[in-house]
Design brief:
Elements (H helix, E strand, L loop, with lengths): L2 H28 L6 H6 L11
């Protein structure tokens, strides 16, 4: 696999991870639950400061 293909694969993997975390966090908030720390970290949100956002 060339470096270009590897980089493209990493970008796509990251995009799917962010999209999945956003969906999971949105579903948790709509259900009046705290999103998981993993999902918040994937989105770049500090889990300890989330309730204050």
């Amino acid at each position: 696999m060339s470096k270009t293909n590897t980089t493209r694969g990493n970008v796509l993997t990251r995009a799917f991870a962010v999209f999945g975390a956003a969906r999971a966090a949105a579903a948790a908030v709509e259900g009046h639950r705290q999103p998981t720390a993993r999902d918040l970290r994937t989105l770049g949100i500090d889990p300890t400061k989330f309730p204050g956002v």
